[in-house]
Amino acid sequence: MYQKILLAYDGTDSSLPALHQSVDLARHCKAELHLLGVVAIAPSAAATSSIAGGYPVVDDFWSQNHDYLRQALDAAASDTRGRDIDVGTSIRFGSPGIEISTCAQETNADLVVIGHTGKGALARFFEGSVGAELLNNLPCSLLVATGGG
Asked: H or E segment at 22?
């Protein structure tokens, strides 16, 4: 069935069902599990905020987001390793849809799991839908975890 599962994880309540379902699937399939956190950065913001006075600068918000993701990923990976699952983690900066698709290609994932955020129509209009972007770009299957699974 599945050999490599990629979970897009951010440590929020909406991502917990995705974590639980990914762990259950990985254990059942004896699959590798990779936990990916993405610090969302708009391309225009990255271009204007990356250099100041000739030196690279990491915006404080992005740094805090990175630190939060690192703690969430490390905690989830630690709990998962206790269940005899081969697990890895990584954090990327950029557009979530693009970064998840790229990581899925690079890790040869055959399943990507994401949580359902329940965004309203207005939020989807301004922010876009990661799930919709993934449906168009993923090289593998997509599972959207919606509940207590």
From this structure: helix 16-29
Q: What's the predicted TM-score (pTM) here?
A: 0.81
Percentages helix, strand, coil for the chain (3-state, rounded to 5) are 50, 25, 30
Structural domain range at position 8: 4-145
pLDDT per residue as tens digits for the range 31-52:
999 999 999 876 545 444 455 5
Dist CA 9 CA 2 (whole Å):
19
How many domains is the chain partitioned into structurally?
1
What is the token pair recorded at 76? Answer: 């989830």
Long-range contacts: 18-21, Cβ < 8 Å, 24+? 18/113, 18/114, 18/115, 18/143, 18/145, 19/76, 20/145, 20/148, 20/149, 21/113, 21/143, 21/145, 21/149
Q: How many CA atoms lie within 13 A of 100 on its CB side?
A: 33
